[in-house]
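User: structure tokens for this one?
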Amino acid sequence: MKKRLPLLTLLFSLFFGFTYAQSIVKGTITDKKNDEPLAGSTITLKNESSGAKTSISAGLDGTYIFKNVGSGKYEIEAKYISYKSADKNFNVNGSTVTTINLQLEDKSSTLNEVSVTGSASKSTDQSAINAVHRSDQVLNAVSAKTIEVSPDITVANITQRISGVSIERSNNGEGQYAIIRGMEKRYTYTLINGFKIPSPDNKNRYVPLDIFPADIIDRLEVYKSLTPSMEGDAIAG
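Assistant:
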């Protein structure tokens, strides 16, 4: 027995040395544009023969290492958020150290010009206040929000609540024509969205305001000063 022990030990060592001959696969994952390491990127090693997969994450310096890799054909793939994946096929034979460095390209793309537009609502109280402050004329404005809480059902009745404006009433006592700065109704004119509207009366050019329901307007504006941009019949406002 003492003479056979060295041979048994030698055979045992050769057997285990052959069985556990493994390789190492390592490398670095970097940004293709600036060579910066991509820490935390996911690296997957796939054995093309068996289909077995192993995934690890790259270190802070972008490096990775797979140990105990058996012989065969492999595919290695690297992925990182907002980057295009990269892969490579290679063979492992015997006990070797294989170094595979992969560079990932970002997915950034050039966008067309983006335009953001917006418009302020003219129906709010703040919008009416801003219109008065920005105007270069003597202006009073009533918002739709204020009109909603008032008992008035026609535009004519709303105008009587504005300072410097009085109302000429019809035969049934309802407000009809606006009298601005005490001047007769024939010295005022009416616009809707900046456009002058004709009078329904074929004898007069002024417009009765009781034909407009109060709830259809976003804002009522009364200008009390004459400017060159106004027509001649707008002496009152």
